[in-house]
Design brief:
globular; 4-deoxy-L-threo-5-hexosulose-uronate ketol-isomerase activity; RmlC-like_jellyroll; 280 residues; 4-deoxy-L-threo-5-hexosulose-uronate ketol-isomerase; Jelly Rolls; mainly beta; zinc; seven-stranded antiparallel sheet; 24 strands
């Protein structure tokens, strides 16, 4: 089969407090995102979020429904967002084609029945990083190029967190039901993301780390602000972040990461900030 999935239960703060390294990684880390000509979904019970990658090599890869959804087709009651982190690609949505280049995004609304992913060059395949959430309304399919993103620069080299935030699939750029996606690029010499850290009880989040140089890694921090844990991550891996958890990382080099969010709130600024000096 070209499509498969696994489902992960939500974990409470008290459960996570007692987890060792292996248990943390099993519950929250998504180690393999991209596999040639296959879509392998990871479903979390936090807001029924789905995460996967599509890397077409031998031919087109079609978005297929999975038993978990109990739906005739994947987007019957869902919306889909993606950002291409590979070579140039094409996404076909009910017969309409969208050319998606490196670090460009595409939103596909509820009700679209046939979605097919293609690479322009099999030697440099496209890598579509996919996020999907339940949807109650159908919004138009739309490509968002890098120049169309809402861009914010935060931090400073002196605090090792100088970074550019590219808000791609967010409500200030286009309409979605609940899914929001964007990309944060760290400047050379900076390693910290999302610091000072925060939580947001009305949204969960998934981070996907890429452009991590060979031989380098990112240490992702999670947990309640006064009871933090960490997960060491490699290039092109993702991590699930519960609403009650901080989500921050420090790399042994600069890197880029994609954030995806879902929940009852589309306000990007809705965050409960944690003072750096009070983290434990």
């Amino acid at each position: 089969m070209s499509t498969q999935y696994e489902s992960r239960y939500a974990s409470s703060p008290s459960e996570v407090k007692g987890m060792d390294t292996e248990a943390l990684r099993k519950a929250f880390l998504i180690e393999r995102i991209f596999e040639a000509d296959r879509i392998s979904w990871v479903h979390t019970h936090y807001d029924r979020y789905l995460t996967a990658g599509a890397m077409p090599v031998k031919g087109g890869v079609e978005l297929q429904t999975i038993d978990l959804l109990k739906a005739a087709y994947f987007l019957e009651r869902r919306e889909l967002g993606m950002i291409n982190v590979g070579g140039p690609g094409i996404v076909e949505v009910d017969g309409e084609q969208f050319e998606i280049g490196f670090k460009e995004a595409l939103y596909v609304g509820k009700g679209k029945q046939k979605v097919v992913f293609h690479s322009k060059d099999a030697a440099q395949p496209a890598k579509f990083y996919l996020n999907s959430t339940p949807a109650h309304h159908s919004y138009p399919t739309r490509k968002v190029a890098r120049e169309e993103a809402e861009v914010v620069t935060l931090g400073a080299l002196e605090t090792s967190n100088h970074r550019t935030i590219n808000k791609l699939l967010v409500n200030s750029v286009l309409e979605t039901c609940q899914l929001q996606m964007g990309m944060t690029e760290l400047k050379p010499g900076s390693v910290w993301n999302t610091m000072p850290a925060h939580t947001h009880d009305r949204r969960m989040e998934v981070y996907f780390y890429f452009e991590v140089p060979e031989g380098q890694a990112v240490c992702h921090f999670m947990g309640q602000p006064q009871e933090t844990r960490h997960i060491w991550m490699q290039n092109e891996q993702a991590v699930i972040s519960p609403p009650w958890s901080v989500h921050s990382g420090a790399g042994t080099s600069n890197y880029t990461f994609i954030w995806g969010m879902a929940g009852e709130n589309l306000d990007y600024g809705d965050m409960d900030h944690c003072k750096i000096t009070e983290l434990r």
